[in-house]
Each structure stands twice: as C-alpha cells, then as structure tokens.
Amino acid sequence: NAGVMQNPRHLVRRRGQEARLRCSPMKGHSHVYWYRQLPEEGLKFMVYLQKENIIDESGMPKERFSAEFPKEGPSILRIQQVVRGDSAAYFCASSPPVRANTEAFFGQGTRLTVV
Amino acid sequence: RKEVEQDPGPFNVPEGATVAFNCTYSNSASQSFFWYRQDCRKEPKLLMSVYSSGNEDGRFTAQLNRASQYISLLIRDSKLSDSATYLCVVKKGGSARQLTFGSGTQLTVLP
Fold it and tell me: A11-55, pLDDT tens digit by residue?
C-alpha cells in the first residue's frame, strides 16, 4: 500500500511563472489536505478537499492559489504568478473518512523555490 | 500569541541523556494532542498521541495538562537516531484540517 505520493519533489520557478503541485492520496483515502511550511516555521493548513469538492479553503491565500481534487487523478495545488515569498515546502496529507482522532498521513512534500 | 508555542531549541544532548520538551496551546477548545517528528527536509510523522492520563511508548513519555494547557514529551536514554525536530500538534475537531502545528523543537543527540 503506497503512501501519499507527491510530485515533483523539487520545483524551481521564475517569478511570474505557474507552479503545479500534485498529490495522490493513500489507497482508500478520500480526504486530502494541503499544508505549507515556511523556513523555520510550523506547518500551516491551506485547504481541505474531498473528491470534486473543496470543503475548507480558509488557509489559502485569496489570490493566485487554487486547489482541486478531480474525480479521477491526483489533487493539484496551483500557484499562479509565483513570487519569492511562495518559496516553501508544500505538504499534502490524506486521511480516510473522518472519525474521532483520524490520523493524517503526510507525503514527502514538494519544495518550491522561486528565483 | 501563537496558537501552539514551543521552545525552538536547539537542544544538543549527549547519547543516553534524558531530554524534555514543553509546549503550550492557547485554544481551550482543543480536543486532541500529538507529537510529530520531522527529520531534516522530510515529511512530519506521527510519534505519539497525548492523553490526559499520560502515556508511554518505550523511551518516550507524553503528558497533557488540560488545566494549564500544557503538553510535554520526555525522551529517556537518547539515541543518535532521535535527532530531529519535534512538533507539538493540537487538533480542535475530528478532521486533519483542524491540526495546528507548533514551530518545532530541534534536537541533536551527540555521540
């Protein structure tokens, strides 16, 4: 049973380009979460998705950022017109349907560097 | 004030030492508590859940004081492989979107 798979592991973009980060949840998991970790800081929640639905995007910047989790295929976090401040590690986590103390399993992350 | 606060360290301890990490949280509605471990440039991994009665897993002991909104992690007989950043994590509900992470405490165990 493969874990949460994220790709690419490392991504370099010039300012103004678009970044697309992909996340395939663990088998049987229908809930996906995206977190961002800035250098020397803790992980910050960005968005929570189920298949074809955004459940909570309260942690996501209002502009340039979007996320989707289509019926088929991985979840995508998209950052348009990247700026230097977007440089961070982006982690995806997945979990089975919610119940008390549901544990989330994290992917290895995508490290985005904006130059 | 941050929702979850930890001493950032770094803690540098010799092998075999006992080391304790502290964490405080500000939201009294928090329901679940965890310690995660994050190795350099890797993803966080669950180390252990934290219960009010205190719980132990081998060399690791976690404690929760709800009245003081305080969580601790004790590592006995430190090993080189314990070197990592330890994240205090608090959850308000049943969903992982309600996980709040501390900034982490860095531990280096020295030979």
Answer: 999 999 999 999 999 988 888 999 999 887 888 999 999 988 999
Contact at 8 Å (CB) between A45 and A59? Answer: yes
| Cβ neighbours for B57, distance < 8 A, ≥ 6 positions apart | B48
Flag if A109 and B43 touch (Cβ within 8 Å). yes
How many residues can be counted in chain B? 111
pLDDT at position B31 over 90: no
In chain A, residues with a C-beta closer than 8 Å to the C-beta of B96 are: 31, 33, 48, 93, 95, 102-104
- Nearest residue of B to residue A109, measured between CA atoms: B43
CB contact under 8 A, A42 and B101: yes
- Mean pLDDT of the residues in chain B: 91
**Neighbour-count burial of B9, counting CB atoms closer than 10 A to its CB (0-12 exposed, 13-18 middle, 19+ buried):** middle
* Mean pLDDT of all residues belonging to chain A: 91
| Distance of residue B109 Cα from the nearest chain A Cα, in angstroms | 20
